[in-house]
TrEMBL record:
PANTHER family: NAD(P)H NITROREDUCTASE YDGI-RELATED (PTHR43673), PROTEIN DRGA (PTHR43673:SF12). SUPFAM superfamilies: FMN-dependent nitroreductase-like (SSF55469). The keyword Oxidoreductase applies. This is Nitroreductase family protein. Keywords: Oxidoreductase. Belongs to the nitroreductase family. It comes from Microvirga splendida.
Length: 205
């Protein structure tokens, strides 16, 4: 039986550490990756994220020095700073406007989503959680999009978030959640690591 290609890429993806430092990505390729990443779902369709694609040698060197000198930050064609935004409930009508205009959703639903989001994110902890959730889903989708385009990826949390926010001019509502290096794999990457058995991680309730 033929393996489904989406399942095959989930099963073969690895967190790469070695990248071909001579490989570059075009603007169009970076846009493609980001467009695919933004197909990830977000609460209330907030799309509360921003992707900073760091690819000049100078910017990669600055980012690398804020990421414990990890070589993949500068070896990979691009290292994305995946930012989650603190949710802004007032943006919801705009994010859904074409959907309402196409008559999929009544305007009253938009109003109740906006009120739901306002109440839910009044607590700063909840707002930050949502920023981290959205950026994490975007990063996961970016990683799988890269794999689908025959590119390797390496997620990283080992970086100075305050330094990255300062150096890359992030706004006060932007949380740098994860770095994701994307490029062509060089030889020497490990295979996918062992996963815990389902008996430990799955409960069917
Ligand atoms: C949120 C997150 C942060 C990570 N941070 C780093 C990092 O800073 N440096 C690094 O070399 N690997 C990092 N990793 C890679 C993990 O070690 C790797 O995903 C894990 O060992 C599983 O490897 P596999 O995906 O190849 O099976 C990170 C992974 C995730 C998901």
């Amino acid at each position: 039986m033929m393996t489904n290609p989406a399942i095959a890429l989930i099963e073969r993806r690895v967190s790469a550490n070695r990248f071909d430092a001579d490989h570059a990505l075009t603007d169009a390729e970076i846009e493609d990756l980001t467009r695919l990443a933004t197909r990830a779902p977000t609460a209330y369709n907030l799309q509360n994220w921003r992707f900073v694609a760091v690819r000049t040698p100078e910017a990669k060197a600055r980012l690398r020095s804020l990421a414990h000198g990890q070589a993949k930050v500068s070896d990979a064609a691009v290292t994305f700073i995946v930012c989650g935004l603190l949710p802004d409930h007032t943006a919801i009508p705009e994010r859904l406007r074409p959907f309402v205009q196409a008559r999929y959703m009544p305007a009253s639903t938009v109003a109740s989503w906006q009120e739901g989001a306002r109440a839910q994110y009044a607590d700063p902890g909840m707002a930050r959680d949502e920023a981290v959730r959205s950026a994490s889903l975007g990063a996961a989708t970016l990683i799988h999009a890269a794999e689908a385009l025959s590119l390797a990826s390496g997620p990283m949390v080992g970086f100075d978030a305050t330094g990255v926010a300062r150096e890359f001019g992030l706004g006060p509502d932007e949380v740098p959640v994860m770095l994701v290096a994307v490029g062509r794999a060089a030889p020497g990457n490990w295979p996918q690591k062992p996963r815990r058995p389902l008996t430990e991680v799955l409960e069917i309730a």
